């Protein structure tokens, strides 16, 4: 599978920005069927960095209401990737 199909988008929040600055951890939204080795290989190939650890979290979709109708947002998977000392993802610089 192509690495760009595994990594869907970066997650840029206050919490992820603090983790990036203090601990060199980057957060990404990934496809639900992706495994930790696949995620690590995809990050290494796309951004040319060394991945030390990958933590994954299955996020449940939130229940939302619009009038009387109740629906649910889609469930998704989050990956928190720890990079080696000195490595960084240029995509996040300046954000």
> Helix segment count?
3
Q: Any idea what the radius of gyration is?
A: 15 Å
Q: What is the mean pLDDT?
A: 94
By secondary-structure content and strand pairing, the structural class works out as alpha+beta
- C-alpha geometry: globular
Number of strands: 6
Instruction: Output the strand order for the largest sheet.
Output: 1-2-6-3
What portion of residues belong to β-strands? 35-45%
Task: Encode the helix/strand succession as letters.
Answer: HEHEHEEEE
Task: Set down the secondary structure blueprint.
Layout lengths: L2 H4 E4 L3 H10 L1 E6 L5 H12 L3 E9 L3 E4 L2 E4 L3 E8 L12
Antiparallel strand pairs: 1-2, 2-6, 3-6, 4-5
Mind explaining what this structure looks like?
- Helices cover 27% and strands 37% of the residues.
- The chain contains three helices and six strands; from the N terminus they run H-E-H-E-H-E-E-E-E.
- It has helices spanning 3-6, 14-23, 36-47; strands spanning 7-10, 25-30, 51-59, 63-66, 69-72, 76-83.
- 16% of the residues are buried.
- The model has no long low-confidence stretch (mean pLDDT 94).
């Amino acid at each position: 599978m192509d690495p760009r199909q595994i990594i869907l988008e970066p997650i840029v929040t206050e919490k992820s920005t603090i983790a990036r600055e203090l601990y060199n951890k980057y957060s990404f939204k990934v496809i639900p069927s992706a495994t930790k080795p696949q995620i690590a290989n995809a990050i290494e190939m796309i951004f040319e960095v060394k991945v030390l650890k990958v933590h994954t979290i299955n996020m449940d979709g939130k229940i939302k209401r619009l009038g009387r109708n109740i629906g649910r947002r889609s469930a998704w998977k989050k990956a928190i990737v720890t990079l080696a000392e000195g490595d960084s993802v240029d995509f996040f610089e300046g954000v």
